Amino acid sequence: MNSWRILCSAVVAAMITTGAPAQDGAEIFKKNCTACHKMGKKLVGPDLTGVTEKRSDEWLRKFIRSSSALIKSGDPDAVAIFEEFNKTPMLEFPFSDAELTALLSYLASFSKPAAAEATATATEQVEEPALVFTEADVEQGRFLFQHRTTGGGPTCISCHNVSDQGLVPGGLLAKDLTHVAGRMGDQGIVGILGAPPFPAMAAAYNGRTALTETEVHALTAFLVHADKNTAATAEADGKNTMLFWGLGGLVAILLGVALTWARRLKRSVRHDIDARQLRTI
Ligand code: HEC
Ligand code: HEC
Question: pLDDT tens digits, residue range 262-275?
Fold first, then answer.
């Protein structure tokens, strides 16, 4: 009994020491949010400058813990921002109250007056040079999307589909990426690939298997290319691949049924003829 109690407290102690909550707001933000949010700039998600003035403390806590729950509850601000960002879902962050307090005070340091002071640096950020993609980047990206083996980790195509010439239909585990570049912009994709915020992808590309900057650039080039060169109908075709195979299966079954029927018909006809001939003999 006693040893059980000691074990329990050891486990708890281990949890406390190893999982010590990083209560540094900047650190929390860097780890969890920068793939989609940048201060002074719209990325996958909105620019969060001044957000602590725009929204109440309570609202922010709810939204960060589970934006989908707040959206589902019909909160008009949550619904509006969700619609504005093409219904791109944010992740859920089960932060403790203390972590949220640290995070929100970090966000508050980017409030409007403070931001005005920092406009010089903020505009520098906004003026980032546009990304330039060459045909070779696109080719390399198309290759990596299907065959990346450097560093290990699964290929993109095992989870995602992209409707692009010469590409076999990809996985349906995750979103179709044909028009992701149109939705989140090239900088947004670079952000996501540089530090994937989705658990499945974060696990796939981590540490040794992380994507290199060159790979991120090439993959982004490929996705921008796919977005520009694939009409909306082609994406629908891609999505309909499953339906196609489903229908194909149905047709095969119907054909099978038709053939058996035909054979049966033939047999019975032949049988009739045989019978007639037998009679005439
Ligand atoms: C996967 C991308 C992604 C990640 C990671 C992410 N966000 Fe978001 N965030 C969004 C999107 C997209 C929206 C726009 C609303 C929507 O579509 O739900 C948003 C909206 C918000 C809003 C509401 C802004 C407003 O104007 O009302 C806040 C606040 C916010 N995010 C904070 C955070 C914080 C803090 C983190 C890190 C703990 C974080 N987000 C991580 C994508 C993300
Ligand atoms: C293990 C499966 C898996 C692999 C492998 C994978 N992803 Fe993802 N990816 C996901 C999941 C899950 C999401 C979250 C969105 C969803 O549920 O579809 C996602 C989201 C994305 C998004 C954002 C989509 C959006 O509309 O929000 C991009 C861009 C992306 N992946 C690109 C890639 C690229 C490029 C590769 C290859 C280097 C890759 N992914 C490999 C599972 C995967």
Answer: 555 555 555 555 55
CB 44 within 8 Å of CB 35: yes
Q: Comparing C-alpha atoms, which of 29, 80, 47 is closest to residue 188?
A: 47
Distances in Å between the alpha carbon of 243 and those of 20, 47, 248, 249? 49, 39, 8, 10
Can you tell me the distance from the alpha carbon of 237 to that of 232, in angstroms, rounded to the nearest whole number?
9
Please state, in angstroms and rounded to a whole number, the distance separating the CA atoms of residues 106 and 274.
Answer: 93
- Cα 23–Cα 25–Cα 77 angle in degrees, nearest 5: 125
- Point out the least confidently predicted range of 26-30, 122-126, 199-203, 219-223: 122-126
Q: Which amino acid is at 155?
A: T
Distance CA 64, CA 16 (A): 23
121 alpha carbon – ligand 1 mean position (Å):
22
Which of 223, 212, 150 lies closest to 185 in space, CA to CA? 223
Rounded to 5 degrees, what are φ and ψ at 83?
Answer: -65, -45
Residues with a CB atom less than 6 Å from ligand 1: 32-33, 35-37, 44-46, 48, 51, 54-55, 60, 63-64, 67, 81-82, 85, 88-91, 93, 103, 197
What is the chain's Cα-based Rg? Answer: 28
Q: Burial of 131 by CB count in 10 Å (0-12 exposed, 13-18 middle, 19+ buried)? A: middle
Joined tokens for residue 266: 């033939």
pLDDT per position as a tens digit, 60-112: 999 999 999 999 999 999 999 999 988 888 888 999 999 999 999 999 988 76
Residues with CB under 6 A from ligand 2: 88, 154, 156, 158-160, 173-175, 177, 180, 183, 189, 192-193, 198, 200-201, 204, 211, 219
Q: How far apart are CA 172 and CA 157, in angstroms?
A: 9
